Amino acid sequence: MELPTTETLLLALEGGVLHVTLNRPDSRNAMSLAMVQELRAVLATVGGDQSVRALVLRGAGGHFCAGGDIKDMAGARSKGVDAYRELNRAFGSLLEEAQAAPLVLIAVLEGAVLGGGFGLACVSDIAIARRDAKFGMPETTLGILPAQIAPFVAKRIGLTQARRLALTAARFDGSEAERLGLVHFCAADDAAVEQRLAQVLEQVRQCAPQANAATKALLLASDSEPLGAVLDHAAELFAVAVTGEEGAEGTLAFVQKRAPKWAE
């Protein structure tokens, strides 16, 4: 697999894990249109490669992401409403694609996790935050809307809490993010973050990649499709899995009391 060339991202593929670092530290990794396009290209490249088991997304320079790039927004002003609409919707497409990616998406959150960065946290499968990270949805303090992230925030933490946070622009730390269900783990310092990340990645490696991808798609579908249709489709997926290569290997490994091939 050949990864795309990027200017705003640092990419490192190690042991089936793609580490993606947002790399605009001078702007606290503000989300420019170039960064959005590069992230979408990376997701498109790795989405069909089952050798990549997980994608770890984090930020350079002590911050995850401080939101949208104000310079990009200022540059769109001369082009009118359509330019703003396209700029905003491109980020929404990134969130859709990140959420639906068949691999496990892990967000490591520190420093600023604001606006668009908040949205990225909400589409991760597993989120690990430093306790002193600063979360918030500051859009309304700028006279704008959290337009593309709002649906993902509401799905993540519930409509009641999403309304409170969006309509007050309240800031909160990693401990509160864990209480809200925005993140799964809250760590005291860098060493604790790395320890938790290593533990999560080891757990992911125990799971068969095709089974994980199908399970993630099933869970996402269960949130929006009629129950009967979801269960019918789930039965088909189960039959294919249990008679397929991974199912055969997994059951054989269990009987032989050994690790399956994907966990070696």
Supply database-style keywords.
50% helix; alpha/beta; Lyase 2-enoyl-coa Hydratase, Chain  A, domain 2; two-stranded parallel sheet; six-stranded mixed sheet; 264 residues; 2-enoyl-CoA Hydratase, Chain A, domain 1; globular
How would you characterize the overall build of this protein?
- There is one protein chain.
- The chain is α/β, with parallel strands linked by helices.
- The protein has two domains: 9-205, Alpha-Beta Complex (2-enoyl-CoA Hydratase, Chain A, domain 1), CATH 3.90.226.10; 209-263, Lyase 2-enoyl-coa Hydratase, Chain  A, domain 2 (Orthogonal Bundle).
- The protein has eleven helices and eight strands.
- It has helices at residues 33-46, 70-76, 81-100, 116-122, 150-157, 159-168, 174-180, 190-205, 209-222, 227-243, 245-255, and strands at residues 9-14, 17-22, 54-59, 104-109, 112-114, 126-130, 134-136, 185-187.
- Strands 1-2-3-4-6-8 form a six-stranded mixed sheet, with helices on both faces. The protein has a two-stranded parallel ribbon with strand order 5-7.
- α9 (209-222) runs antiparallel to α10 (227-243).
- The chain starts with 8 loop residues before the first strand and ends in a 9-residue tail after the last helix.
- The model has no long low-confidence stretch (mean pLDDT 95).
